[in-house]
Every structure is written in C-alpha cells, then in structure tokens.
Amino acid sequence: MAPEALLATCAEQTDEQLAVATAGGDEGAFRTLMNRHKRSVLCYLHRFVGDPAWAEDLAQETFVRVFRHAGRYDPTRGFSLWLLRIARNLAFDHLRSRRSEERVLTELQARTREAAPAQGQPEAAALRREAEGALETALASVPESFREVLVLCDVQGLSYQEVSELTETPVKTVSTRLFRARQELRQAYRRYADGSNGRES
Amino acid sequence: MMQCARFQDEMAALLDGADAGTSREPLSTHRDSCPACAAAFEDLRRTLADLRALPTPEPAFDFEDRVLARVRAERGRGAISEPNPARAPRRFRPSRLAAAVLLPLLGAGVLAAVLLTPTGTGGGADAAVAEARARVRKLAAVGGDFLRQVEHLDDEKLARGELLNGELIVSGLAPLVAEARGVLARADAGQLAQEQQFCQRMGEFVARITAQIESASDAGDPTRIVRQVAADLGLPALCATMRIGGSGGADLPCLPVVVWHAETVPAVPGRPGDALHDFLAAKRAWYGGRVREARGLFEQFVERHPGDALADDAFYFTVRAAAADDERLPLPGPATAVLLARAEPWFEDQDAEPERQILLSHVAEWRAELPDIIPLISGTMPCASPATRMQIRLQRGGHAAVLVDDPELTRTLDDLRRTWPAIEVRRRGPLTCRVVLPAELKSRPDAMTSLVPFLTAYPSLFVFRAEK
Prior knowledge:
The complex is a heterodimer of chains A (201) and B (468). In chain A, 80% of the residues lie in helices and 0% in strands. Chain A has helices spanning 3-12, 15-23, 27-49, 52-69, 79-97, 101-115, 123-141, 144-155, 160-167, 171-197. In chain A, helix 4 (52-69) packs across helix 5, helix 6 packs antiparallel against helix 7 and helix 9 packs across helix 10 (171-197). By secondary structure, chain A is mostly helical. Chain A has ten helices and no strands. The longest helix of chain A has 27 residues, at 171-197. Chain B is mainly alpha-helical and 468 residues long. Chain B is 60% helix and 5% strand. In chain B, the strands form three sheets. A two-stranded parallel ribbon of chain B has the order 1-2. A two-stranded antiparallel sheet of chain B has the order 3-6. In chain B, a hairpin with a 3-residue loop joins strand 4 (424-428) and strand 5. The two termini of chain B are 50 Å apart.
C-alpha cells in the first residue's frame, strides 16, 4: 500500500484495530498508535516519575513492550488502559529501583532553582516557571500510591472506575486516595509556592 | 447543617461534577454559605487547574523511529516499513533547533490528519474526497505553523543564532504540496474547490521561496520576504481557514530565523573563538557556496567546541561537505568520534547515500578503536584546567548522572567502572544507563583527572544533580 493511503487508512482505524494490526507486525499501524498516544504516555510518566529524561526513556520502553506483547492484547478491552498499564508497571519498576523519594525531591528542587533565573526571561515567564517548579516539587512530595491516582484522574482524565481497573484496587480506595492526594498536593503546593518567593498566592 | 469537616471530606466530589452531599443539603449549598470552606474549595480547584496546565513534555523528535529501531533489532532486522511521509526530511538533519521547529510542525500535521480525516464515509469517491481533505488540512497545519513562527521572530532569537534555512522550509512543504496535489487529482474536483485553490497557492509559495533561494543576487531580509510572499498569496488567512488544530506556533520553544544566503546570516555578537561566532562564520561560508572553506571551519568548530550544542550541526555539515567533495573525513579525533557514534541515523535517507557511506566507514573504524577510546579522549581532549572544572562541578553536584543512548558508549562506561569500582552504573534497558559518581571520588584527584575529558566530551549527556 502506498504510504499516503496507509496513513489515511490508519487514521480512520480505532486504537483497537491498530493494536490488532500491530500484533500482526504492521509497523504503519504501530507508528500511528505511537503517534496518537506518545504524548499522553509521556505526560503520565513525567508527572508520575518526575524526571523528564526518565519519562522519555520509559515512554519509549512502553511502546517497545506494546509491540512485543501486542499478541496478548485483548481487543475487546480498551487499548488506552492496556497501554497505561504497561507504562504504569514500568514506572513502578523504575521508582522501586530509585533510592528514595527524598532524592527525587532534591532533584526537583535543584531544577527549580536552576530553571528560575534562566537567561534573561521576562519576569512573568520566570514567575510562571517558578510556580510550575513549585507545583512539580509539590507533586513529587505526594506519596507514590496517592500521586498515581491523582495523575491518572486529574491529569489523564480517567474515571474512578478506570483507575480502579488499572490499579486493581476498589473504587472506594481510589476515591479515598484521590482525596488524600489532592489535599496533600494542595497543601504542599501552597507551602512551596509561599516558600520559594514569599508571596501570597 | 453540614459540618465543615464533612464538606472538606467530600468537596472532591463537587470538583468531579457529582454533588454528593447529604440528602438534606447539597455540598454546593454549604460552600456558598461558608467562606472558609469556599476558600479551601477554591484553593483546591486552582491547584488542580494549575496541575492540568503544567506544560506537557514534547516527545523526542524521533520517538517513533527510536522505538521502531529497537523493535526491529529485536525482530532481527526484519522488514523495513515504508517510509512515513510525515517524517522530517532527513536531508536536513533534525538538529536541536530543527527538531524544535520542525517536529511540532510535522506533529501538528499528523495530528491534523488523524483528527480531521472524516470517518464513516461511504463509497470510494467519498473516501477519495475525505483523503484529499485530510491531506490539504495537513498541509495547512504545517504551513500555518510555519508562517506563524515567522511572524514571531525577534532579535533575541536572532542573536542566539537560532537559524532555520530557507531550504528547510521548501523541503518541508514541497512534499506535502505534491502529496496533496496527487490526492486532489484523484478526487472529485467539484467538492474540493477551496482545497484546490489553497493547494495551488501553497505551491506558488514554495515556488517563490525556491526562486529566492536560487537567485544568488537577492540580499533582502529573508524573513520579511517570506512574510511578504505569504501575505501576497493570502496564505495566513487561508491556512487558518483550512486547518483545525495543530500545535500553535506561538507556543514553540524556539522560533526560526530564515536564512538562505551567506549575506543573510545575521551579524553576530562575539569574537572569533566564541562558539556562536565561529559557527555562523562557517555557515556564512556554507551558504555562500564556499564549501571547502565551510568544511574547514566546521571541522575546526567541532574540535574547538566539542561540548557546544552546535557541535552536532557543525559535524553534520562537515559530513555533507566531505560528501560534496567526495572525500573522506580526517581520522576521527575524539570529538568527531563522539559525534560519529550519534550520527548514523542522520543520513538514513536514500538521497543521503554518499554521506551515509562516509559515515559508516568511520563508525566501523572508530568502533575498532573502541577499547582505546578513553586514552584517546584523555590524551587529546583540549581542557585548560581539568581538575578545577571538575571539582567545581562536583561540589555543585555531589554526584553526576550520565544519560547515554549509544551502546558503544555504554561499553566505554563499563571500562570506566572497571577502573573505578566505586562508580555505580545502573542500566535501564539498551537505551540508557545512568552513572552515579560517589561523592568520595571528589577526594581522588587521579579519578577526577581521568574523568574530566570524558565529561567534557559528553556534556550534553551528563546530568548533574545537586546534593544537600
């Protein structure tokens, strides 16, 4: 099939169809899947893992596994959740291998400090950068199991039901964790935002 | 009356749009009557809004290619898929700059194609119309993003040397125009008058820019000319009409300055010896058609500024110039060796075959030399006072992490670890390994000295972490 026809065909197919085609070794379908989902996967991993370089790496690894295990994918179930499950497993492996939460926090703080005074940015941009840094730091300070639910619900926009399925925890637990996560994030954000520039938000 | 504690327990539900509350009193009623709870609710709402508004990281420009390369390696060099027409034109190696500029463009194009292809159309004729529309909208997305970037040029970007050459515009847009035309020719013209017109104007735009590039006499401000040509053809408005979606050029991290002749490379601050100055001097020669001179300057740049972000670009031009002269590169020096290791995928395209051949022969040569790469780097890397520089970095850092995306480099690091067992190398798949240098190494000047050239050679691969 000519490339343009291929692209047009792939563009019309659902994720599930593309995943099945991928299982059959169709690289065009796989490419389309990556194109559709790479940003979302990267965003999830970035928010969850914290470090952008690791997130990129893990996102690529996620898709390598998608290709490798596409044969095991059950097309009657949503592709997005299956994809997220792979990303999530990788993220947890990664976090487990990392020494401690505190280290992540230190890294984030360091980055915030470095990023803020960057080359002659206009003040508004610098302030925005600082606020973003504070929020990233705050997010990293939320314990893993809570942070995960927060990222899935509030960044990825998954429903409680979907998160419950993905994390294999009861819906009730999901909502409790989300509640805790939001509270912790809110408090930490306020703390870091006030601490870093001394202004009331 | 609802208690505040109860409200704060349940206010998340309010955010989710489900006002659980009690049967007697909805959550929103309590919020509206209690200033403290209203403030807590607002704070939470704003925090979550900020969280959603955090900038989304952009995937690597060659994300799909990297994943596919690994997948293919796993499958043992299986079938190579057909080239993706949406991929960056490899004639212009996607440098840091080009990646920042081009990929959002191309990403936008693909996104538009994916989003906008109408689904559920009936017969073949409808499908042809739908495909033609999708094509044209992709062209509009890419073209529109480009034009918007040209609108956002400023002197600061210019001074930083963020250049985009005119050829890149043409090479990015021309294939899209050709594709759209091909598809339009096959579809029912009656339904596609607007698309036809747009495509024709875009073709005209590409043709005029090409003429500018080819007319050696022109010395006008290229940015102004691009703007003028686009305005003459009514393209900005047309692009906006034709496209829905896209990345939005205004948000891009860097903006292009259009360059197509030596004279149009902007005057640069700095003196000879400054990286930016040297780079632009080489580019002037390149665009002026003085290939041999340019090559010398680019080679010099690579050796003088091995750690500079522009070294990749300089090396790329060195290879192209060597190919133009049908010559081999000089034996790789350490900086060249580093770049060689990363350069293979730059020249994947068939039309870059001479460059690829040159490169491959050097990569093979370099890999044969690999066991000695550390002495090679240590022995020749220019480094004024290595120990000092290293210590400053380590004092700031405490430990260093290296991100590596080359298996050969990983092997080099393994050698390093054999020499210095205290160095911790953590592997994460074939793409990356991370090296942590323990703080006690600071007191080992001999270790530091052997590491300095390494760090200098791969500055972009090292991530320094602060330690309390």
